[in-house]
Amino acid sequence: MNYKMIGRFISQILAVEAVFLLPPTMLALLERDFGALHAFLITLAIALALSAGLRLLCRGAKRGFYALEGLFCVGIGWVAMGLVGCLPFCLSGQIPRFIDAFFEIVSGFTTTGASIVPEVERLTRSILYWRSFSHWIGGMGVLVFLLAIVPAGSSGFTMHLMRAESPGPNVGKLVPKMRQTAKILYFMYVFLTVLDFLFLIAGKMSVFDAICTAFGTAGTGGFGVRNDSIAGYSPYLQNVCTVFMLLFGVNFSCYYLIFLRQLRSVFEDEELRLYFGLVVGSTLLIVWNLRGFYSTLGETVRHAAFQVASIITTTGFATTDFDMWPSLSKTILLCLMLIGACAGSTGGGIKCARALLLFKSLRRNIRRTMQPQKVQVVRINERVIDEQIVDNTNSYLAAYVIIMIVSFILISRDGFSTGTNISAVFACFNNIGPGLEQVGPACNYSMYGDFSKLVLIFDMLAGRLEIFPILALFSRGTWISR
Amino acid sequence: MKIIVAGDGKVGSTLTRLLTAEGHDLTVIDIDSHVLDRSVERYDVMAVQGNSASMKVLQQAGTEDADLLIAVTNADEVNLLCCMTAHGMNRKLHTIARIRTPEYLEQTYMMRDIFALSLTVNPEKRAALEIERLLRYPGFLKRDTFAKGRAEIVELRVENGSAICDRPLHQLSDLLKCRILVCAAVRNGSSVTPDGNFVLRAGDRIFVTAPTDTIATLLKNLGIVTRPVSRVIIFGGGRISYYLAEKLQKSGIRVQIIEPDRERCVKLASLLPKTDVVCGDARDEALLDSEGIDTCDAVVSCTGLDELNMVLSLYAKEHGVPQIITKVGRIETTSVLGTLPIGSIVCPKDLSCTAIVRYVRAMQNQSGAAVTIHSIAEGQAQALEFHVDGSARHCGEPLKDIKIKANTLICSITHGAETIIPNGDSQFNVGDIVVVVTNGDFAPLQFNDIFA
Asked: By CB distance 3.0 to 4.6 Å, which of A28, A244, A363, B357 could disulfide with A36?
């Protein structure tokens, strides 16, 4: 295990976090919000000191960075980011308890959007900004950002970082150079975020709200700046959010293909078809199920589409309390929570690509039992999928189910209803945010005990980093040097 | 530059390492996705899985806007088809193919326009040429030629009891009665940049820069017998052995090839009338003795097995063969090999890679860029050749006034036909060829990079 090299990366991650802390610090200064300013300045100092200290400790790192180091680095890096990032919340006294602040910022970085703050509007603007900005940072990933700005030489070890941080069963590059790939990804990310912001501004949203909402949408996070999430905004703004949530749930390599004018391969992409098919299908079903629930058909469609987009992209904004919906609609939403957005997007969940792969391999295996002699392969987009990837996806699903069941059992100690607990685990593990019943869109997670919060924090991290980096932290093999 | 490497085998992966280190955008094609996974994890490259001669795969790899295609799959036919197809898709594309079948060599040269080849590389032929060059000047472990053959960097092993053993470097020029410069030394497997007070110890390997015309003097004064080689035993009857024997028999050297496979022996014997082809196992001690290993001038171990080659060379050393050359195909950990007394090591893979990298550098054609790069001292140091042009700084200034980066040494300056080993008063001018040796991670790709 190359601890020094990992230390260097952690040091760089903290330095990047310090840079990201600057905008809210400036905001606190402008607003003369001295409590928050104080908290931000202390956090900045701590982040920089830790970064410099680690840098000094990890001088003269040897080469050699492999899959295990990549997983470990990403796992540790995200935990470290959360531990430092939560300081402004507790130091400013706005979220006084450390565990609550940690929950909140991990929920931010993992783009979950599950909150323990009962009255969001009581937080000051710089704190709100940091909370929403954490979504944007976590959406594309801080290590991908690091790869875009730090020259890493000609070695391929950066692939281990990218694989560990980026969602999807089969992470690849867009262009031969990792740095260039990371730059292209961030360029598209920034471009879409700015576009979203402009559309929101055009709908007469205030600049601050538009920035925070754009961050929440871009990272598919879901922290709002109002208690009622997006419900208080005009129908136009809600529709803008629907469209942009869906756009951020698309695999970013599709945008690159559009840029390369390979429209055909985008249209024929099976994952994308499944994704939009699910969105349209579930919206229609919910609209049918909700007849008579709202006054007009237009309103029904708007709410249904918004909620479907919000859940499938694992954003977690809400325009209405969908916990009041009939149970078929709620069940559909719960299923969408599991599937999630496309691989290579900022969304969470199992991912459409994996769902597709699992479905196809299941169908293949069933056919194989019927016709054992027939040789069959799994294909997606006309390409044969390597059995290794099919295998990995199957074990991913197994790990996913096991973690979910164990978390469900662990948080059930707190004595809330089964629906609450199941949906809380679903919502945290898939990085959505609001669940059903007592953790529904109109409620929050503050009632859970500290231990349950820790379990949910673990779930959020495991969900965002696709399980293995976080599991690697708990594996004995990681800690004994090789 | 955008480069596509078709075939991710021994040569392909070495090229990937060298070319990514120079900052090129690489796409690697191979039929085996596991091999590709390994490359993607080690180097900053993109991988495309599929048959590299197929148009669809080449399209995926971005042939349309690539600058160079290097076809190094294990089949010559695939390499040729790959180059032809790719060139059909992109007329501006340069193509390099590895062709190793001797029967194809002539036609690929004559029909290089039809096959759309910019360069063909034959690793075995290159290896044979390299071995032949080493045999011509016995005593050196390795020779790298610079400045159109006017300057050399030769590798020597300091033997116990040799004239230069236990002497500091500043005495060497007087001892050997010619001006030479020790530009790098390897002691216990790690490379050092020596200064004048560095004392040579037995077992050190030193890299010496000298003008080509002083090489003979150097050898004589070192006490190394320069008796011309007249009888060579070659272990293994592969392609390298064939090319080498053909070359050697032309210059009147007696060659014995020992090869276990009878059919191959018959073929070699029919191709090489003047060569003794012996059918037998080189591991058989009695056979070696009967073939006269004690009295031959040189032994070349080039069977297909690296381990066997090493053992055979060790055996030859024990029997006092004056010059030994060992072919190594796969083993990457050459630092271990350097400590064994197995003579010169020739690696066909590295030779072809060097040739290809040289072509790539020439293609870039940047002013002031290094023309050739040779890696010496187990890759821990590099010797670079620069052609001084108008963009170079410090032209015409004495070297003692120029600040040069640490671990960097100007080893030779070739002005017209004359090569000098520079001292503090020497200077370089536009049109000169300068050889620079650097030690460590920093690789100056531009001449001006060497100045502090």
From this structure: A28
Distance separating alpha carbons of residues B210 and A256, to the nearest angstrom: 54
| Structural domains in chain B plus CATH codes | 2-121 (3.40.50.720), 128-222 (3.30.70.1450), 231-350 (3.40.50.720), 366-450 (3.30.70.1450)
pLDDT digits (tens, 9 = 90+) for B241-293: 999 999 898 888 999 999 999 999 999 999 898 899 999 988 888 888 888 88
pLDDT at B357 over 70: yes
- Chain A residues with CB inside 8 Å of B41's CB? 66-67, 156-157, 159-160
* Dihedral, CA of residue B146, residue B150, residue B155 and residue B158, to nearest 10: -150
Shortest CA distance to B440 belongs to which of B264, B193, B252? B193
pLDDT digits 0-9 by tens, B100-159: 888 888 888 888 788 888 888 998 988 998 898 888 776 677 778 887 778 888 888 787
Could you give the CA distance from residue A360 to residue A480 in angstroms, rounded to a whole number?
Answer: 39
Token duo for residue A388:
């290794």
Single-letter amino acid code for the residue at A251: N
* Cα-based distances in Å from A302 to A237, A238, A260, B25, B29: 11, 8, 33, 47, 48
- Measure CA of the first residue to CA of the last residue in chain B; give whole Å: 28
H or E segment to which residue B120 belongs: strand B119-121
The whole-angstrom distance between A3's CA and the closest CA on chain B is 19
> How close A65 gets to chain B, by Cα (Å)?
9
pLDDT-derived band of residue A399, with 50, 70 and 90 as boundaries? very high
Tell if the CB–CB gap between B27 and A154 is shorter than 8 Å.
no
Mutate to test the interface with A, among B44, B49, B67, B357 (most CBs of A within 10 A): B44
pTM more than 0.95: no
A157 touches chain B (CB under 8 A): yes
Closest partner residue to A159 (CB to CB) among B23, B25, B40 is B40
**B296 Cβ contact partners less than 8 Å away, ≥ 6 residues apart:** B231, B232, B233, B256, B321
- Tell whether A4 lies on the interface with B, counting CB pairs under 8 A: no
Max intra-chain CA distance, chain B: 66
Residue with structure tokens 């499938």? Answer: A312
Measured in degrees and rounded to the nearest 5, phi and psi for residue B298 equal -155, 150
Task: List, in order, residues 6 or more apart from A314 with CB less than 8 Å away.
Answer: A111, A112, A220, A249, A337, A340, A341, A347, A348, A349, A430, A431, A432, A433
CA distance linking residue B140 with residue B216, whole number of Å: 11
Give helix B10-21 / helix B33-42 axis angle, nearest 10°. Answer: 30
Q: How far is B34 from chain A (nearest CA, A)?
A: 10
Cα separation, A49 vs A11, in Å, equals: 10
For B243-301, give the secondary structure using H, E and C: HHHHHHHHCCCEEEEEECCHHHHHHHHHHCCCCEEEECCCCCHHHHHHCCCCCCCEEEE
- Contact indicator for B1, B68 with CB cutoff of 8 Å: yes
Q: CB within 8 A of A131, min separation 6: which ones?
A: A89, A104, A105, A108, A123, A223
Residue A376 vs residues A169, A353, A356, A371, B130: alpha-carbon distances, Å: 21, 19, 16, 10, 51
Which of B394, B380, B391 is closest to B441 using CA atoms?
Answer: B380
Tell me, what amino acid is at B417? A
B339 Cβ neighbours under 8 A, 6+ residues apart: B188, B189, B203
Tokens linked to B239: 């392609």
Q: What is the 3-state secondary structure (H, E, C) of A405-467?
A: HHHHHHHHCCCCCHHHHHHHHHHHHCCCCCCCHHHCCCCCCCCCCHHHHHHHHHHHHHHHCCC
Residue that is written with structure tokens 């069940």 in the block = A331
Are the C-beta atoms of B249 and B275 separated by less than 8 Å?
yes
